[in-house]
Amino acid sequence: MNFWMNLSPEYLEEEYRRWQADPDSVAADRQLFFSGFELAQETKTPLAAEPALKASAVQSLLYRYRDLGHLQAAINPLDPAPATHPQLALESFGLEENDLDHIFHSVRFEKESATLREILAILGDTYCRSVGVEFMHIQNPVERDWLKERMEPCRNRPQLSREAKLAVLGKIQEAALFERFLQRKFVGQKRFSLEGGETLIPLLDAVVEHAARNGVRDLVMGMSHRGRLNVLANILHKPLENIFAEFADNLELGFIGDGDVKYHKGFSTDRKLPSGEVIHLTVAPNPSHLEAVDPVVIGKCRARHNLHGPGGKQKVLPVLIHGDAAFAGQGLVAETLNLSQIDGYQVGGTLHVIVNNQIGFTATAKDARSTPYATDVAKMLQAPIFHIHGEDPEAAVFVAELAFDYRQRFAKDAVVEICCYRRHGHNEGDEPSFTQPLMYARIKDRPPIDTVYAEQLVAEGVPSAAIDALAQQVTVRLETALEAAPQPAEVGYHEKWAKVQRDYSPEQPVTAVAAETLLQLGKKLAHVPAGFALHPKVEKLLHGRLAALESDAGIDWGNAEALAFSSLLAEGVPVRVSGQDSRRGTFNHRHAMLVDQRNGALFTPYAALGRGQAAAQFYNSMLSEAAVLGFEYGYSLETPEGLTIWEAQFGDFANGAQVIIDQFIAGGISKWDRASGVTLFLPHGYEGQGAEHSSARIERYLQLCAEENLLVTYPSSPAQFFHLLRRQVKLPYRRPLVVFTPKSLLRNPLCRSRVQELSSGTFQPVIPATSDPQATRRVLLCCGKIYYELLARLTAEQRDDVALIRIEQLYPLHTELLSAVLEPYRVLDRPLFWVQEEPENMGAWRHLRPQLAALVTGEVGYFGREAAAVPAVGSHRLHREEQQHVIDAALTL
């Protein structure tokens, strides 16, 4: 803010009089201001009384137009712009029409001296025409000045050549004629038309071309269904014949899995500009859950940055296209915005485009938000916000390039809002006038934008024949594509996925690591730089892990995890772990990043394993599940060779990310043929911590399982965990891995593994019992923590009459292996029971019951808590009683 904005008029008048008496008695910038002011008075009629106050008022006017000029801008095609806003009226500054022709000296304005009339004309043209700008909330003066210098000299008005204007018209015609063609040829089919918001297409086209000319090599878009088909056709140039075949529901076109509706699908392609630059364009697939794709796109871009190496953020551009109601209403928007400047998640800024058609499904703005603009949530980032009239495509092109340049210059998000309308209902079969008769009466009378812009160009002297020729070219292209056969769909993974097979296979790859290698890694993990002051407890933990390796005294869970991570990194496999408190670990077991107790310096042992190692990334995330898990899912799509892990603070906290789990992680491979190896760590176990800190909701993940879409596991030993993590990147295919991880088992002395268990073998989907089948009177199947409670009781009672069999992989269930393990007991007709901590309507029981029943001749019994509305009780004493009852019932013969 300029200095006089913080000063009272009285003080400024006093400063002026001091300067008149002694110029050196005031600051240099004020000397310049007052000398310019007096020069103006010498060349024009002197102002009335209090000249310094008038000068101060003009500076206030400059500031306020920049701050509030958008309130007087003509940005709504359905409503005329206000003639003047009260806060911008001359009288609100103590100015009068008599002052209009007086010259004023201005600071940080393109003209040092100008009449008030000239100043108003410049400000009005810049901030109150078809572009309204919000940028004075940005606290960094460098950013504000950069924006002013880019906007005010050209008045936010692009100077396009006739050729450039015809190119803009061409994109408008492509957008408009495409929609009308679909309306005629595929009557009644949903397409979620872009009509009324066609300016999006020249805007995106400008972004693509300007970005490519300025070094961007990857542009990744995320958007919902409205306008997606138009974007695919006219920006990514998806073959029109394939789009039309989807409308005709031609199964011959081919798709993998169950497929998805046409307006949810993604697409990618390379686009070559006439100038020779090549840019890779991607539209990510997205479900109907608006804004769910936002963090996925950001995660994809972060991974691509790493692939590009240094300067990657300047080469990869995320573009998120939103609807007005969703941008204001969906919490995932704010979560994704909040990732913007966080070290582990920032991508050098995102370009946001809001297509504001002034209505949700049937809800208007007053029902959809409490803020003046749909874009107001973006102010949390101090991002510039550009509002543009939806029928001024030239302004859209100018602002698109300006917003991109800001992003490249400051590595921050920028927001562009296209203020437009929706010509039809929510979909083409809906009748919007049921609820908005007045709005749709205005829309009905409004000519389409291709007509509006064409008439403008004709008025500027462009021959109508040239305009008609452009439209004819588009029409011929559409008609030709309708008659053409669709291009064959590509089957198989490409580029970085080329070595990954699509289909699931039950084979277990070799995941063992030589004992000598494990010891070397253990030494490196326990080493810190000279003089680094470790916390005494952390120092004891690290030395204890090394000692356990050296003496084979038992590898605990945290040690096994550290050895899995470090061995993969040493083999060239990148590892990324993020989540709430994941650097240390919620339960104080990881300590991936060490902190010097004297100066706060950080040291990551995983990054100091030696030459040739892969990148180790461990990040504490913000307090979000949906955005962070969505980010990591997106990251995993770009890194099939790496281990990407999202860790929930407690397993049931993943409930906050259910849309990401259901729509992307569980369904992505079947709907969109998009495999992912993302791994979820979900702490689980009943230890008396109440309903929200006990269960990771095993049953929900198993309910999502079909067609080998997920790997759901509950490993019970450190060695199993070690092999499981290594297996995830050694498998020939990729599937999301759900791991129910321990809490109390992290320090349970029974939950230990020998070095040999890590240096040999592989992950065991089923772990047989160690008891003699002949001595066994009952067979108990279980998974996870309860195994150790059953084992402790049997050991204490010196019993061998109960066989404990652990199912470590709940899905896909290795039925052949399990059948072989059960065979000795089946021959002896021993009764089989499932034991779990969870209530009967939760956990793995109901999912496994029919599969277990198919493996035995009799019924499979159940021991566990009774069905309940919540996962666990709140009373610790009642928890102990319930847990004891389950153990007693299972072991009482």
Distance between the termini: 81 Å
Bin the helical content. Answer: 40-55%
User: Uncertain runs with pLDDT below 50, 5 residues or more?
Assistant: 1-6, 40-49
* Count of DSSP strands: 24
Spatial strand arrangement across the major sheet:
3-9-10-8-7-4-6-5
For the CA atoms, what is the radius of gyration?
Answer: 33 Å
Main beta sheet: 8 strands, mixed
Shape descriptor reads: globular
Strand content: 5-15%
What structural class results from the helix and strand content? alpha/beta
Number of helices: 31
- Average pLDDT, rounded to a whole number, is 92
Q: What is the chains' assembly state?
A: single chain
Describe this structure in words.
It is a single chain. With 893 residues, the chain is an alpha/beta fold. It is 40% helix and 13% strand. The strands form 5 sheets. The chain has an 8-stranded mixed β-sheet. The chain has a 7-stranded mixed β-sheet with strand order 14-11-15-16-18-17-22. It is globular and about 105 Å long. 48% of the residues are buried.
